UniProtKB/TrEMBL annotation:
Catalytic reaction annotation: ATP + protein L-histidine = ADP + protein N-phospho-L-histidine
Xref: InterPro entries: HATPase_C_sf (IPR036890), HATPase_dom (IPR003594), His_kinase_dom (IPR005467), HisK_dim/P_dom (IPR003661), HisK_dim/P_sf (IPR036097), Sensor_HK_Regulatory (IPR050736), Sig_transdc_His_kin-like_C (IPR004358)
Origin superkingdom: Bacteria
Transcription in keyword set: no
PANTHER family assigned to the protein according to its UniProt record, in alphabetical order: HISTIDINE KINASE 1, TWO-COMPONENT HISTIDINE KINASE
Protein name per its UniProtKB record: histidine kinase
Classification of source organism: Bacteria, Pseudomonadati, Bacteroidota, Chitinophagia, Chitinophagales
Enzyme Commission number(s) from the entry: 2.7.13.3
Enzyme class: transferase
Gene3D superfamilies: 1.10.287.130, Histidine kinase-like ATPase, C-terminal domain
Organism of this sequence: Chitinophaga arvensicola
Limits of the Histidine kinase domain: 217-432
Residues that span the membrane, as ranges: 39-58, 64-83, 90-111, 117-132, 139-157, 169-186
């Protein structure tokens, strides 16, 4: 029974202490201000029982004035907590500063009880919690003057009966402990602040990397339609379209411009969603509509290179992943397959469903890769080559594919033979689908 009571009492006491120390601290506060508020709470809290104890002791020894001053000091510490609770931080600091300086100066001069060392503690606290140099300078002059007055005042002249020497020792030791606590907490503040700065730096580095990825996605998604438009306009300029075919070519051109507009809309929508960094938001969705969008994106290139597309994707194939990121992966893999396929070749896309995974396989029968090229595929050291039609890549697409696959709990495998083609296999989590049938999507 006692084994269960002790942890409960310990947790209760710890929660009570944390609640008191964090009075007035709220999430919207600046970091330094929250730590300064916590420092004042930390100094005021133990001072309350300490001063009430000595007020009772002084009262029992008939030092009534000193007992009253002890109660006033304890009250000022209580006021600090109350003002902090109602977020009157300036009032809390003024109450502690003014009352403490007056009381400790008076008791030091009047009783010679070592109160001048408490003045030094107050001076350190003022330096730590105030940024205004005029406030710090003025209070410093005031406290140093009071300290020197007490120290150099003739010790043989007393305005009241002196307190016992052991009381002076306790006061001096306590004031020095307050100094140690203040400086230690300030050092802790600085350490936490440095950690906070480092975390923010790491966040900025991560966001910059995400920004670079977004730029590469934008460039990749826009470059292909622009290259197609450029090719069509070049053919117009060279007069390779007969007059009777101009209407058909204009329709193709209109289709590509519309496609480019849709691509820009998708990229802008995703960029808006990723303003604070690329975020993976998995959900269940059908694979077939995404494949349709990808094929529509490359339809003119497919026609120009006369590529045959072979699809074996069950209509009910469902993934649990981020739809936009899967779309980026498929566009990159399909773009590479078209780029390195010979004119008149075949590109295959197959979905294989297992118990808990969906494997998407994109295969071409084109240029293939050497073992050395494969080793550098998913690194920044890769050297993108030219496609069969002179197309040039950036080398960033496969890096993005790998990262997006990992973020969605999957991975990418590659198999390639020079001059025999390349096959990429992407593993995704299987999603839930309750409607439809298992007919093939061709």
């Amino acid at each position: 029974m006692l084994q269960g009571v002790k942890p409960f009492l310990y947790r209760t006491a710890e929660n009570f202490w944390n609640n008191i120390v964090n009075v007035g601290v709220h999430p919207a506060m600046p970091y330094i201000e929250s730590r300064r508020t916590k420092l004042l709470n930390l100094l005021a809290l133990p001072c309350i029982p300490f001063m009430f104890f000595f007020s009772l002791l002084n009262y029992s020894q008939e030092r009534y004035l000193l007992a009253v001053l002890n109660v006033i000091t304890a009250t000022s510490c209580i006021l600090v907590l109350i003002f902090h609770k109602y977020r009157k931080y300036l009032s809390a600091r003024l109450a502690l500063l003014c009352i403490s300086v007056l009381v400790y100066t008076f008791t030091g001069v009047y009783f010679h009880n070592g109160a001048e060392y408490f003045l030094l503690s107050i001076l350190f606290v003022v330096i730590l919690i105030y940024d205004n140099k005029w406030v710090v300078g003025s209070v410093s002059v005031l406290i140093i003057t009071a300290f020197m007055l007490i120290v150099f005042m003739p010790q043989s002249w007393y305005l009241a009966p002196p307190v016992p020497p052991e009381r002076v020792w306790i006061n001096v030791a306590t004031s020095l402990i307050f100094l140690v606590v203040s400086l230690s907490f300030f050092k802790h503040i600085q350490s936490d602040y440095q950690k906070e700065i480092e975390q923010q730096r790491q966040t900025l580095v991560s966001m910059n990397k995400d920004k670079e990825k977004l730029f590469s996605i934008v460039a990749h998604d826009i470059r292909s339609p622009l290259a197609t438009l450029e090719g069509l306009l070049d053919m117009f300029q060279r007069g390779q379209y007969p007059r009777e075919d101009m209407e058909e070519a204009a329709a193709i051109l209109y289709k590509k411009v519309s496609q480019l507009g849709a691509t820009l809309d998708n990229v802008l929508r995703w960029s808006t969603r990723s303003m604070k960094g690329i975020q993976t938001r998995p959900d269940d969705f059908l694979l077939a509509p995404v494949v349709t969008e990808v094929l529509h994106f490359f339809d003119l290139i497919i026609q120009q290179k006369q590529i045959t597309i072979s699809l074996q994707i069950p209509v009910s194939t469902t993934l649990y992943a981020d739809r936009d990121q899967v779309s980026v992966i498929l566009r990159n893999l399909f773009s590479n397959a078209l780029k390195f396929s010979y004119p008149g070749g075949t590109v295959e896309m197959t979905a294989v469903i297992t118990d808990d995974e969906v494997l998407i396989i994109v295969t071409d029968h084109g240029m293939g890769m050497s073992p050395q090229q494969m080793r550098g595929l998913f690194t920044s050291q890769q050297h993108p080559g030219y496609g069969t039609g002179g197309e040039r890549g950036t080398g960033l697409g496969l890096l993005l594919c790998q990262e997006f696959a990992l973020q969605n709990g999957g991975m990418i495998e590659v198999d390639s033979i020079p001059e025999n083609g390349t096959s990429f296999t992407v593993h995704f989590k299987k999603g839930e689908y309750t409607a439809g049938d298992n007919a093939a999507f061709n």
